[in-house]
Design goal:
The chain contains five helices and 14 strands. By secondary structure, the chain is α+β, with helices and mostly antiparallel strands. The chain has a domain of 110 residues. A hairpin with a 3-residue loop joins β8 and β9. The longest helix is centred in the middle third of the chain and has 23 residues. The chain is elongated and about 90 Å long.
Length: 353
């Protein structure tokens, strides 16, 4: 999430932010001031899966006869595997928790840092935005060798598939014999230089792997990622379908019955205080100052019909309440720096100088 910095002059007398005027945000009315929002917590579930696409080799039917390789499939197929799942809390602007800090001519200059959505990130403590690391092209996958590049004239001129498979199998055995001779020191004209020897052995391994693929086939692995956002509330305490999964089709939508369901439940663990009576609430006056979140806790459980896949407590803004920064944090002559958790709006760190 990109971040923006908003400079604003906060009204302060001898007690700094103690006299800061903060009011509930009302669109079109709070003209003279800077508005910030507190976040609402969402739970982001990221699923990482792999799709294996198998392509049989052209000599798959002769794998057992010439190379003693059993169980080689002769038809293409696709298989999905779920590799990992990560869970984290993320914050979005809560439109019900907007506040306007009124600007005055006299006062000290303070720094509020907001996200592009206007969510409060820090006071007097701008966050450093790190530049993205340049992509490294050296990490590109190596191009697979074409087995036909290693076939000799006799193999290529064969008119029978069975005969061609037999000759390719003999070529594989010849490669193995050459490697064994080099490793045993029985081969002639072998370079004494260690690096040159490694290159020769690597070339033999490449040739063997390419030729074996003509019998064994190839499996291409493709990584897939899916992200699901959950909004914790009082209605998802029961079992809910998070997604469905199929070994043939991968990650599926909750209404696709061709996959097995994976469930989730979110339980509010916070003991909230008793609500104030309506008459008292009308008379009550909210203290002046920067409002922040005091998040509650939720227990997130993700499971299928066999096992629990994830079970952890997660802080959730909407399961807690709000509070106001203490007035003595900003006494005159003291610089107080405060950072807030962008996913919950809770105080993350306070420093005073």
């Amino acid at each position: 999430m990109k971040k923006g910095i908003v400079l604003l002059s906060l009204l302060a007398s001898m007690n700094g932010l103690a006299q800061t005027e903060v009011s509930d945000y009302t669109p079109g009315i709070n003209a003279e001031g800077v508005t910030y929002f507190l976040p609402r917590t969402l739970i982001e579930v990221t699923l990482n899966a792999e799709r294996e696409e198998y392509t049989p080799g052209e000599f798959c039917d002769y794998a057992n006869k010439f190379l003693r390789m059993q169980g080689i499939a002769n038809t293409p197929h696709t298989k999905w595997n779920m590799k990992s799942m990560t869970v984290k809390a993320v914050g979005v602007r809560d439109p019900q928790k907007g506040f306007t800090v009124k600007l005055k001519d006299k006062g000290i200059a303070s720094l509020l840092e907001l996200t592009d959505e206007g969510v409060l990130l820090s006071i007097n403590r701008p966050t450093k935005v790190e530049a993205p690391n340049p992509q490294n092209d050296n990490g590109q996958a190596k191009k697979e060798a074409d087995p036909k590049d290693f076939l000799n004239e006799e193999i290529l001129s064969s008119t029978s598939t069975a005969k061609m498979a037999e000759l390719v199998a003999k070529e594989i055995y010849n490669i193995r014999e050459s490697r064994n001779a080099i490793l045993r020191g029985q081969a002639e004209n072998v370079p004494k230089d260690g690096e040159a020897l490694k290159i020769i052995l690597a070339s033999l391994d490449e040739q063997e792997s390419a030729l074996i693929a003509m019998f064994k086939g190839k499996t291409k692995v493709i990584k897939e990622e899916a992200t699901i956002l959950l909004s914790p509330d009082e209605t998802n305490d029961d079992e809910n379908v998070l997604y469905r999964f199929s070994a043939k089709q991968g990650i599926l939508a909750v209404d696709d019955l061709s996959g097995s369901p994976v469930y989730y439940s979110i339980k509010n663990l916070t003991d909230l205080p008793q609500p104030v009576e309506e008459k008292k609430a009308k008379k009550a006056k909210r203290p002046q100052g920067i409002v922040y979140n005091v998040p509650g806790k939720a227990l997130l459980k993700i499971f299928n019909n066999k096992e629990v896949l994830y079970e952890e407590e997660i802080p959730v803004a909407q399961f807690g309440n709000t509070d106001v920064l203490a007035t003595d944090l900003f006494n005159k002559g003291v610089t107080t720096r405060i950072s807030f958790d962008p996913s919950t709006g809770a105080i993350r760190k306070i420093e005073r100088e």
